[in-house]
## 1
Amino acid sequence: MKILVTGIRGQLGHDVVEELTKRHIEAVGVNSDDMNITDKHSVDTCFDSIHPDAVIHCAAWTAVDAAEDEVAACRAVNVDGTEYIAEACRRLDIPMMYFSTDYVFNGEGTRPWKPDDKTAPIGVYGQSKLDGEEAVRRILPDKHFIIRLQWVYGINGKNFVKTMLKLAETHDRLTVVSDQIGGPSYTRDIASLACDMIVTDKYGTYHAANTGYCSWYEFAKAIFAEAGKQVDVVPVSSEEYPSKAKRPHNSRLDTSKLEEAGFTTMPSWQDALHRFIAELNA
C-alpha cells in the first residue's frame, strides 16, 4: 500500500510519515515545493506521478489570527486545495483523510461536541475548515475520513508547549487564559490513530484528542511541572488577553465514536505531555 501524505513540514504530516514508515507502509510525503495544493494542475500531476492507494491530507492553513486578514489565502489552502485533492482521489477511486478542527463549532457551552452536532464557525479559519469538510463529503461521499482535532502539538514545528518552555527561559511569571477548555493532543498519538484508520473502510466524521480536558492555564502549569521549570502561572480571562480571531471557550470533543468503531482510545493528555517532554529532551 502506498499512501500520499501532504504537509510533511508540519507537525502532523511529519509524524504521520514516520508512523507509516515504522509500520512498513510506503509513505510518500510531499510539501508545497513538490505539490502546490492551490494549483489543480500541480495536484493532478503529482497524483499521476505517485499514483497512491490513499491520501492523508495534513497540509493546512492554521494561522487563526492571520486568516482574519488574509481570507483569500486561507481559503485557497483550506478549501480550494482540499477540493483539488478530493477530486484527484475521486479520479483514482481512492480514500482520503482530511483533518479538521473544533473551530467548526461556536465554542459555547460545556458539553463535549459530538461529530453530528450543529456547526457554526465563529471565524474565517473555522469556516474555511468546515467548507473543506463539506467539499470532501460532496466529492468523496463514500470514501472519506474527516477527523476533527484540537490543541495540537508535536516535535516538528511551533506549538503552545514549545512557546511556554521558551518563555520560561526569560520569565518567572506568565499569564495564561483559564476560561478556554479543551483537550491537548500529541501528534504522535494522532498519527498512530490515523494510520490505524486509513487501512480500514470505517469511513465518516470522527473527533480525536488525547483523553481528558483542561484549560490553557492548567495545561501551562502541567508543562512547567513536567519540565521541572519554576514559573508562576497566573490565570486570566479571554477578555484580558484579546486576539484578532475569537477563540472558542468550549473546545471539548467527544471522541466516543472512535471506540464505537473499534479504534483504540488515545492516551490521557497528561501521559502524552510526559512523552512529548521526554522526546524534546532526548
## 2
Amino acid sequence: MLSFTETARCGGARAGEVCTPRGSFVTPAFMPVGTRAAVRTLTSADLEDLGAAVVLANTYHLMLRPGAELVAERGGLHRFMDWSGHILTDSGGYQVMSLEPKLDDEGATFRSTYDGSTHTLTPELAVEVQALLGSDIAMVLDVCPPLPSPRPVIEAAVDRTAAWAARARAAYLSLSPPGQVQFGIVQGGVEVDLRRASAVRTLEIGFDGYAIGGLSVGEERHERQEPLAAVTEMLPTDRPRYLMGVGDPLSIIEAVGVGVDMFDCVLPTRLARHGTVLTSEGRLNLTNARFARDDGPLDPALVNDPAGRWSRAYLRHLLMVGETAATRILTLHNLAWVFHLMEATRRAIAESRFEAHAAAIRAVWER
C-alpha cells in the first residue's frame, strides 16, 4: 500500500515522493509533533496554512487520554482532529526510555503520567491501538535506551526490539488495518556493528518503511553520523527512511546527506514556547534585551513568514508580559522556517547543488 519514488539525487542526498492510500507527500519532509492530537498552540487549519503534509501523534498518550476507543468512535484521528493530511503515530517506544518502565519479554509496564494507573504496552497492543486511532503510518514498539549506555544494554535493546518487531508485524498482518502502513525501527546506539545487525534483523521481517531510532537521545552530534550512514546504506532504496526525533537544522542536513527522507522533532515548537526563533542568522532568543528596540522582522530572509507583520520588539514585549499570543506566533514562524528549509533542500537536490546548500547551513549552525 506504500511506494517511494526517488525523483532526484545529489551524492547521497535524495528527493522523492511517498505514496500511501491517503495520497502522497514529497521528501525530504519534516513532520511537526502533535503528541496529543494537536501541535502545541496550533490548530489543524494552521497546519494546512503552513503546508504541513504529515503530523505525528503519540500512541502512549492517546491510549490514556482520551482513549483509542473513544477516538475510533469519533471516526479516527483524522476526523477527530479535522485533519486531511497524513498522520504518523509513534508506538510509545520513546516513553519506554523516558518513563523508565519495567521491561520484560512481554512488553513495557509503566504508570500513567495522568493518574498513576498501571498499564502494560505490548507489541500487539501498540498495533491494536494504532489501528483504532486510524493513522496512516504506524510504528512498531521498540526499546530505545538513552545514550550513553553500556554495550550490554544496547545489545539487549536490539534483541528485544527485533523480537517485538516480529510480533508487531504478525499482529499487523493479522489485523490488516485499512489504509494503514507499518514501519520497522532499527536500534543499536552509536555502535556501527549493532546498527548493522539490527538493520539485518528488521529487513528480514520486512516492513513498508524503515525508521532509525535511538539517536539524538544523549550522544554528541558527531557520534551519530557514522552509525546513521551505516544503516541508510543498507535500507532499500524503494522504501522511505525516517530518522526519529531529530529536528535541528544541522542534524537534518547531515542526515539528508546520507539518504534520510523523513524527520520529526519537538524542537521547533519547544524553542518557540521558550522565546527562541530559528532564522537565517541562527537561533535568536527574543528575551535578550538587545531586541527590545528592534523593529525588524524575525527573519527578513523568510518569504511569507506568518510572523512577518510583527517586529522583534513587539514579539519580545508579548513574551516578557506572558501573552500566549507570543508562543503561538513564534511556533508558526519556527515551523514555517523548517518547512522552508526542507523545500530549499529538495530544490538543491533537484538542481544538483546539495553540497553547496549544506555548506551554507553548516556555516550558520556550526557557529
